[in-house]
Amino acid sequence: MAKNQENGREREEYFKDRTGTDDARFHAVPHDEQGWAVKKEGQDDPELTTDSRSQAVSEAKRMAEEAGTMAYIHDEDGKIKDQFKYNN
Q1: What is the pLDDT of residue 53?
Q2: β-bridge partners, 48
Q3: How many domains does the chain have?
């Protein structure tokens, strides 16, 4: 259990370091009951919400490509399923 808490703190710091920077990455994640969202790392509020997973994935990839960063695609359980890296 202590190791999980330590990993959680490290992850929080990792995301916090990227908040508001060009290194922030975009995540397509489950949102609310049956919806999906695109969230930028370190931000609580989504960039976009939708009922469609495919739309969230497309938008996360588009935003990441535009920013020259990465898109992480999560599954219905919230685990990372895929990632895409874009460079400027």
Answers
A1: 96
A2: 38
A3: 1
Q: pLDDT (tens digit, 9 = 90+) per residue, 15-74?
A: 555 555 557 899 999 998 889 999 998 888 999 999 999 999 999 999 999 999 999 999
Which residues form the domain of 15?
2-85
Kind and range of the H or E run holding 2: helix 2-18
* DSSP string for residues in 13-79: HHHHHHTTSTT--EEEEEETTTEEEEEETT-SS-SEEES-HHHHHHHHHHHHHHHTSEEEEE-TTS-
Q: Which two tokens stand for residue 7?
A: 């990993």
Q: Which two tokens stand for residue 87?
A: 């460079």
